[in-house]
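For concreteness, we quote verbatim a single protein encoded this way:
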Amino acid sequence: MGIYDAKHVHGMRVVHDGPQEAPPLVLIHGSGASGSSWGPVVPALAGRYHVIRIDLPGHGQSPPAPSYDVPGQAAGVAAALDELGLRPVTVVGHSSGGYIATALAEQRPDLVGSLALISSGPSPDALLPQPVFLRALIGPPLGPLLWRVRSDTMLRRGVTAVCNRPVDVPDDLVADVRGINYRTFRTVLRENGAYIAERSVPARLTALGVPVLVIFGAADPRWDPSSAHDYDTVPDARVEQLPGVGHFPMLEAPETTGELLLRFAAGR
């Protein structure tokens, strides 16, 4: 199913798929990615839902922002959804997009009916040592230099470095990743870390009292897969671990991921 509408709302590119009269399902990407990262699961979701993909500030086709703190980004997403007249929504966040989704629910319980988090590390101590290639690409002293000469092959390798299965990285995702500024990316990582250091995601979700789905790859090389069970303490939360899947379930297991999201959004 193709895009039926794409426009900028409150400084963020918003892409719509599926019938406009269907229940809204909002997809929020992680750091260094874009709405294109959801491409493989969109056709299945858009068959039943009004799917809204957002490019966060400084990512994809959205311009930079003065600040990238998690609550501020969540407030921007809320303003965009208000302008679009969408509520209540099911919000799905991948990786740090799960932090934006959580902050959105914290700020606007009237707006968020349920939350799904995919590969969202619960707290800083769950972070694993990153693959060598990624450490070189995103950290000093090599990061700023490599960032300027990134080829399509390097960009694809950056995505697959945190996957456990062979994947085809969408061309539009590669193009979107190319446009991300190094300083922006580093700032986003720092702000994400500050958000979960202040209070863990399971603790934040426990205070919200909304239905929660947690999807975690059992072979995630970015976050300790066993940390998925930190979410077991959250009331009304279901944790699903996908065998053999790494950090990108939408790319590595799109059919399974899509089916889990469809069942959750339908309240099953």
User: Anything to note?
Assistant: Strands lie at 5-9, 12-17, 24-28, 50-55, 89-94, 112-118, 212-217, 237-242. The CA atoms of residues 153 and 174 lie 9 Å apart. The first strand starts at residue 5 and ends at 9.
